[in-house]
Write a structure and sequence with these properties.
Elements (H helix, E strand, L loop, with lengths): L1 H18 L9 E5 L4 H9 L5 E5 L2 E4 L3 E12 L6 E4 L10 E17 L6 E4 L2 E11 L10 E6 L2 E6 L2 E3 L4 E6 L2 E6 L2 E3 L3 E6 L2 E6 L2 E3 L3 E6 L9 E6 L2 E3 L25 E6 L4 E4 L2 E3 L4 E6 L23 E4 L2 E3 L12 H16 L11 E3 L5 H4 L9 E4 L6 E3 L23
Parallel strand pairs: 1-2, 2-4, 3-5, 4-6, 5-6, 6-7, 6-8, 7-9, 8-10, 8-11, 9-12, 10-13, 11-14, 12-15, 13-16, 14-17, 15-18, 16-19, 17-20, 18-21, 19-22, 20-23, 21-24, 22-25, 23-26, 24-27, 25-28, 27-29
Amino acid sequence: MKQLLAGFMLLSFTACYQGNTKSEDGYKTALSFAPGEESKIEAALLSLTDSTRITLKEGTYKFDNLSIAQLKHILIEGAGAGKTVLDFSSQSQGGEGIRVTDVKGFTINGMTLKDSKGDLIKINKSEQVVIADLHAIWSVADSTSGGYAIYPVMCKNVLIENCYAEGASDAGIYVGQTDSAIVRKCKAYKNVAGCEIENTSHAEVYDNEFYGNTAGFLVFDLPDLSKKGGYVKAYNNYLHDNNERNFAKSGSFGSTWGVGNAAPGSGIVILAASNIELYNNRIINNNSNAISVVSGFFIDENAAAKMNDNYFPIPRNIHIHDNVMQMDTAFPAAVYEHHTGKVLVGIEQQLNAMDPSRKNARIPFIAYDGITTNVLTKGTAVNPDSLCIQQSGPNLFVNINAMQMKDKGWKPSTDITPYVCK
């Protein structure tokens, strides 16, 4: 734990240094451009040298795509989100709006990116990355939108701060296969997932607002990737009204592990991720489920065959405490057309059929698939994977007993006793 805290202190210091460098003497080269000089900007990026500050003045710039690679100490700054706008709507080639690869010390802040065909900004294999005061938006939120609005992947030491993402057909703010990341004071609206932490270790997500998405916040570990995630904390977030239709691209549905599996009305979903702590969050009016904790087996019966050093399908060491959770009186309409959504509806119906005293109560706030390491070890231990819940109130928890869902005698259980923190 001391090493973890020290790492985050170092990240915070590094991030503040990179993001707050304002004087030109912090960079060997300072370049400044205005709208209408797009060709000069593209040429400058092709010949960019280490330690360069690029200032984009207020106005709208139209680009096909921009690329930066194999550099150190680079700053791209605008006049502010909504003031400096990079418009990729006429893009004729390239997937991303901005692609950054192998840059050590990269900061981008103070601008809006909009309407690329693929991801709006993808930062790959880079270190000491700061994305601040950035809006990343698609004008139309549907399956034609790019997958990720803000997308650092395979990076180290990432700070995403005071950003806004809208319209992504996968995740508005996504951090993938990264070591050490902070997402704070951001907003995500009208995406499939507001924010996703995937196969990422040592991440903190706090003081954010994720609302009006299909699902508010996802913590996923997926197979066949180069890095194992874990040690993720999410706290002081406001996740509300995430009830919208899942408009992920078709290849993201079913057993292909994509975000298409996220049911409309999901607040937080933990999938096959371990060492996770959720606390002091307000999880309000996500009307299918506040928190779901599920294994890889929940969406792929062959998950065991995918196990290796970077992937273990059972979530372990999950600590849920001191969250405020509320749901409305009914599922969102979109849930009835979604494959995972139909499962959640079935759980609620089965609980109420089993126990008329529930008087048609809603599905409990926390849903656990109940698939444990016992399926791998043939053991019989109760709560062998340390799901630890410290929450109070009625209708709090359901163990879905997902392995028996297809059986006639299937009985989900609302007994939280084995999972109350000792």
